[in-house]
Write a structure and sequence with these properties.
single chain, 10% strand, 8 strands, 19 helices, globular, alpha/beta, 483 residues
Length: 483
Amino acid sequence: MSLIRLLEVAIGLLSINFILFPFWGSLIIPDLVAYLILAFDILWFYKSAASAAAAFNSHRQIEKSKKIDWLTKAKMAADFEKVHHLVIIPNANEPVSILRRTLASLSAQNFPKERLLVVLAMEEREAGAGEKAESLQKEFSATLPNLFYTRHVLKPGEVIGKSSNEAYAGVWADEKIRQLGIDIDFVTVTTADCDAVLHPQYFSYLTYAFLTNPNRYRRFWQGALVFYNNIARIPSPARIVAIVNSVWQIAQLSRRDRLVNISTYSLSLRMLKEVGFWDTDVIPEDYRIFFKCYFKLAGTVAVEPLFLPVSLDAAESTGLFKTIKNQYLQQQRWAWGVSDDPLIINWWLKSPEIPFWDKTIRVSKVVLDHLFWPVNWIIITLGANLPLILNPRFSQTILGQQLPKISSLILTLCLMFLLVMIYVDFRQRPAEQKPSAPFRLLQLLEWILMPAVGFFLGALPGLDAHLHLLLGKRLGYRITEKV
């Protein structure tokens, strides 16, 4: 058995044993279970407080950034006229209306459009892909004069998905850029999900950040991902997930020690070429490309925040149950990022040139987030009651009687941080996606669904992904349905 496979099994077994420990431990060592649950509750309180503070700080930074004239600031930087931005939009079987909306957001950029090189990365296996791309080319020819498209043909050994498609488009675009005589040292690459609506100042802000950063060839840039394109019309369970994910992503911008690019992000073409573009044999691509750059380039790589929103679609379908299913599959696909952890740990083991604590902190934060994905709900929701239910004798002890009271107090105090999250969400939503006054209270009442939503659309898809990893059953790429 290879080291990678051993690590896959170890990670799967760890997460499952973390889930099972409160159950069997309550029968044998209830005191230890109780103390560990209280320790976890205290940790959860700290994490909630830190996330709330980070979310509020990011919110303030975003509002400040919206008011700055980034184009004027960028023009004052040296080499402004040399900068070009390559935008790759991987897609397959997406409604043309979704692609049109994304291209419209690029047309609305205040950066010179003749220096935006946009590539619709189509898949050859999609019937009519070429015709769709050509119709969009014609439609946006006036506002996006450098709009191209590619048709990715899957090769042996490649995995269907975003990573292999954007790798193909990236290599094609690199050749095109050389033909156009553009200096690649002044080209950024933005990989954009097909439903991404970028703030009109995104590329002006990116230009300024790129030109003024002395380490620009060792940096990613990440905007504030928010799932607001359709949040007003989706059912309550899906909306709760979208809000939590949005505020979490907003918060991450202020936590640079743990910020990793995801979904829609930017980097220099020079760095992307140095590491050989995206891998073609994997499904998760965002965390993978970060750690591929980080370890290949001796730990010199980091992610910088762009405090502007990048709005995406929340998972949706036709009807409540199909939407919930779609949301579940999306969460499962995101949780499948755990499949990258064995390779990341392997790179960590084989990189003595990188300072130990720097790489350890980087890797441990990602691995622990993945590891506890299916565990958090069990401990927070059921943890304090399990020892009392499963071990009646323990319930008669002083610790047994105090455990649920102390745990409940700590978790109740966490509710004030939930209020911060609700506030940030409401302030960040576009006006057209905010509930009207009569429905604001109804949307607040939706939060009583949080325990059920946390299990069925959080813990369960996470556990599903971890079991697939443990059993060696690779998940195939599923495109999130767009409506």
